[in-house]
Specification:
heterodimer; A: 368 residues; mainly alpha; 2 domains; three-stranded antiparallel β-sheet; 15 helices; B: 634 residues; seven-stranded mixed β-sheet; 22 helices; disordered N terminus; disordered C terminus
Amino acid sequence: MLFQLLRRFWVGLVEHLDGPLLVITAALMLCGLATVYSATYDANNRALSQLLNMCVGLCVMWAVAQLPPQKLMRFAVPLYLIGVILLLGVFFFGIKVNGAKRWLPLGFTRIQPSEIMKIAMPLMLAWYFHKYEAALKFRHFIIAGLLLIVPFGMIAKQPDLGTAILVGAAGFYVIFFAGLPWKVIFGMVVAGASAAPFVWTMLHDYQRKRILTLIDPTTDPLGSGYHIIQSTIAIGSGGGFGKGWLAGTQTHLEFIPERHTDFIFAVFSEERGLLGNSLLVVLYTLLIVRGMMIAANASTLFSRVLAGSITLSFFTYAFVNMGMVSGILPVVGVPLPFMSYGGTALVTLFLALGILMSIQTHRMLVKK
Amino acid sequence: MGLRHTSLNTRDSELDRFRFRLGIASAAVLLCFTILIARFFYLQVVQHDYYTTRAEDNRISLVPIVPNRGVIVDRSGAVLARNYSAFTLEITPSKVSDLDATIEALGQVIEVLPKDRKRFRKLLEESKTFESLPIRTRLSDEEVAKFAANRFRFPGVEVRARLFRQYPMGSVASHALGYIGRITTRDLEVIERNEVLANYKGTDHMGKTGLEQRYEFQLHGETGYEQVEIDAGGRAIRSLARTAPIPGNNLTLTLDAKLQEITEKAFGDRRGALVAIEPSTGGILALVSTPTYDPNLFVDGIRTDDWDLLNNSPDKPMVNRALNGAYPPGSTFKPFMALAALEIGKRTPSQTISDPGFYNFGGHHFRDDKKGGHGTVDMYKSIVHSCDTYYYMLANDMGIDNISRFMGSIGLGSRTGIDIEGESEGVLPSQDWKKRRFKRPEQQKWYAGETISIGIGQGYNAYTPIQLAQAIATVANDGVMFRPHLVKYITDSKTGEKTMIEPQPLRTLPWKSQNIETIKKALVGVNKEGTGARAFAGAGYESGGKTGTAQVFSLKGSEYRAGKLKQELRDHALFIAFAPVDKPKIAIAVLVENGGFGAQSAAPIARMVFDYYLLGKLPKGAAQEVQTDEEEEE
């Protein structure tokens, strides 16, 4: 009797979870915890608080996974509208931190509305394409483009290039999977290449500086080149097998800035070497492959494009972060998924994971 | 059937297209990850040796050398703020396993008082743990030696030579100078906004208020660097190369420190403010707000009990009354009203009114201070004897729009732009101001009756002492107006080049010279035969002035008997003045909070300031109140 009760509880608990996704993220989280521990244990150890963040994230993931995609669809428009309104709020009442206006004070706390857009954007566009699925015309792509460009512009204006890129990418992936004509894609590439000089003049000084130091970090070794120089030294000196856990000199002599957040990959790479890096890339690849499988087997257009977009977003996070830390992409504030310290970003990631699981586990129900 | 068929068909083709695109995306992912792995291979295998060497070389670290902060001197070179070097005992919390035990053990070697521990705790909360924080400041040589002998017992604890800010004149001019304090998170934002973060590596103090804050980036200097070899534990072994820091620029003030000191003493224990301006330049000669405080208390982190004392005192010593106190100007408003009347042609100097002792407006009696009135009053008499009725009438004739336009033009009710942050605006009453100030429509309307008391400097009027000083200085300087400033020039520490501050007039007001003469003559009359005569009896120079009394609370028709009122309910005393009349060298505004009549307590302070500044006469003690009978006209 008790056994049956426990069994039913267990089934209810795991019914809407996806095993492979869970195993892969668990492995990533373990790597993350160990690295956060190493990066912060000399001073203010954050591993425990990161563990707490992960638990909160897991609860959020479980809750979201219980909702069938049709229910998720209902959140699309309100969430998007709330996101846009909050972004407007940031524009007018936002508080400046480190020269950028990203936070909205709410009296008791402050929030970063651009974070909401990471989920709200793909959700909204997937809902939009799903609604016009039967008679998709070119103008729908134009409207989708407008829905994407407005919040993107507002976030880029804050300025928060990192988040803007992530939100923009998530939205673009939806449009791409919904069937944006190839002609348009190539047209955009050509237009983008020819518009680059104009964009250059519109960038903020500090963004230009970052791009310039990417090309030649040695021009500003004490200023903006410092991050890249120190993180490449950390990666390079890590060698094939790394210096060992807690033994990275770059990390522990405090040469790596922001070493438990955006630059955590430098710490991991220094202590774990090429072997560790490869393992990490394999884990991310597995995560993406599983996501793609879920997308390919999803039963509605909404689920398909949403799953596809979320999966590619995971890829974008990982690639942009590792690319910037290893010096092949400009430094933009993008955390490494499931590794970087930080509660808000982690919860957003788990929320996305929950959506993927919901799409996967509710697909049979829809078919029936 | 056909329709359904096509719909299914499109659905299938849609799915195919989706899966095709998924495939393309997978290929892109694979490509990108391959590039990443290739990059890792290049860095970690191909270039591994190179980067290993560089990581080793990273044992050479750049240690910032904090520059000497610029010195602040007064107009004759007397030092108001300088630096001195002293040894501090510092702990880097992240390198210490048990902080409490370490501090306990340190206490056995060197005296560590409870207040030192308290301050250290506070610093610890505010800073990052890898920063080195002082547990003791100003070690004696003996203490340094004692610690050196025991150093091996205390990893993570070091003796360091640090520069400290010192204000040699103590509390003198503290409200002008301001003070420096440890850099907080909010300060860091300011530094970052100004894109000078790199220059602040190693700096842990910056200006918090006053000139120290306003000229922070001038005073700071350029940080130097020392290349230091460090061992695996991060400890410095030897110095390899050095780029010397460039000291901060020095400030030379327009302020006269001696005058400032005498003036502060003249206030005694009274609360108040005084601003003295050189009319021909706008340079501030004295900027007083009493009570003052000792800025030296803040330099190495103020003690909690000192802070509580300063912060909780009912006298509010931390408030800069000269810039942030807004007071009704009382009768000191009258000469400006008179000038306005002449300029817009509402009065001529000889035009007279008859004063019965009150002014009747819509059935309400606006009382004059003098019972029975002043009789026949022309403009000269209206200022010299401070006749209220004359100005009740004048205000009504001019209307609020004319009044606020003129008063706005001489800077009343707007920030003067003095080189200290956080100045208040005060209140220049106008129809527009009332609309902005109040919410309900019936409150937003300006009533003609409200204009009457504006005429004698009461009602909504509220100005800061520095605005009044600027206004009287502008009249003294025949309408040529300057932005008041404390810094005369900045001396570049590299080139020795001097940059003058505000050498050009702000604007020249188009006043007729005979109008200015009329007002000046009346102001001279005040100090010769009017309300200021007693305070300026026997002065060795010719001066002009105007007394004023600002009501703290409404009298409601009852008679004012100062002695019967509680001190904090007594009126504020004001006095504005300038001297010498033919070529004014100094113009001032004095305010004594709850000082009663302006003639009684504010004017004697002005006399003392003028005597010292113009004749070099040193006063004996605090300015005594001049005894006046209560029927004195204000």
